[in-house]
């Protein structure tokens, strides 16, 4: 299953936020503060929050109930995602516990997208410039582009995945 561009952006933002929170914590705080509505920055904030959670950085919004919900939610997200939905819609749970469940579900979504990205085919390791077929295709495309660019455009439109 092919990943959408939005999923790829979310994972890139998550990874950038996680790494910036390790190496440049003041910079990520400034980025988050100056761009509160940007989707990429929101994904960076999620990465920052998970880094803080993983290294047990004390935060006011991560109470004992939040941590319990997050750890239980990780297991539920992997084995029974429908159960998280039922718990979140039900009543009687502490609001911090629900926030922890929601955060665990979000983390599971990011991790599943990362796994899909790892399974996508990679570019060949050999240098394509020395490949005979690549050189032939490049030469044909170069020559067609000079006076017949509309043919290449038509080919790209009809053969796009």
TrEMBL record:
The name this protein goes by in its record: Uncharacterized protein
Originating species: Mucilaginibacter psychrotolerans
Species classification: Bacteria, Pseudomonadati, Bacteroidota, Sphingobacteriia, Sphingobacteriales
